[in-house]
Amino acid sequence: xxxAESAAAKAAAYRExxxxxxxxxxxxxxxxxxxxxxDGREVSGSAVHTQIPIHRLYGGVVPEIASRNHTERIGAVxxxxxxxxxxxxxxxDAVAVTYRPGLIGALxxxxxxAKGLAYSLGLPLIAVDHITGHIAxxxxxxxxxxxxxxxxxxSGGHSHIVxxxxxxDFTLIGRTRDDAAGEAxxxxxxxxxxxxxxxxxxxxxxxxxxxxxxxLHTAFNEGEGFDxxxxxxxxxxxxxxxxxxxxxxxxxRAGVAASFQKCxxxxxxxxxxxxxxxxxxxxxxxxGGVSANQSLRESMQSACDHAGxxxxxxxxxxxxxxxxxxxxxxxxxxxxxxxxxLDIDASxxxxxxx
Length: 354
Prior knowledge:
Elements: H1 3-15, E1 21-26, E2 31-38, E3 42-50, H2 52-56, H3 63-84, E4 94-100, H4 104-121, E5 125-129, H5 130-141, E6 149-154, E7 159-166, E8 169-175, H6 181-191, H7 198-206, H8 231-246, H9 253-279, E9 283-287, H10 294-307, E10 310-312, H11 324-335
Helix pairs in contact: 3-4, 5-11, 6-7, 6-8, 6-9, 7-9, 8-9, 9-10
């Protein structure tokens, strides 16, 4: 039996309700992750190797170093996830992998490894868009959650408001015109002299600051549309820091951080809640690395309560990059018949950006 015949037969068996175990791989940026997911929503085992200590030396992710580290670690991470799930490769029914968006070199490591594994085992290969994976993280936290709903995806590279029509059907409602929210957090944190990753560090010192210390706003984010713009806010903060230092004064780092965070959180909250209200849907979900920000979670919860909308946000372990969310989304891709060929390639852009 050829690989194509074997993969097709096993994909059909999966859809018919037999054994449903997916080995998922995620390597889009600076985390090498693998997970074993059963029936789409049960995480049996998971392993993550973070490169943060390495990239902290350079103040941000160095793509070449990230790719090399993925290559060194991916085998061990996959074995660790299988061991955590007490599962053998012979018990796996499909292999899933993030193939877009992300750092091309990093993605290629995961895609290449997944291709080899799928081919050698005769298993179907499922290619997952990283953004849809982040959305699927909500299914792992809320087993009863079903589409349709609105989801705000906020991360280091993306700020999207998405209408989740079905598990594999998405409509883009709004997106950033320039910097993503997480990217803006990291750049402002760097300007404040905070270590990488900047987002969590900025959130930490913001707790000690006055949110009204500096008036930061942008007419674009206060408009009626659903797109965002964070570059101007970032530049305003950098100017405040430079002007203060040129005067020989001490920068109120906590006040700057708190004011900046409030401005970004307000924009993300207002636009996403308005999108949910105008769509007529009763659920608004949050996803992506920035979904770990407590100020954002609290702001969206309060706004959703006021609007009479149910608010969902992933468990903290599913906010940052992980393979469990990729395995979850892969289940629905496979159920929809979306099986990739061995000619699948990595891409820096999400289908939501195309």
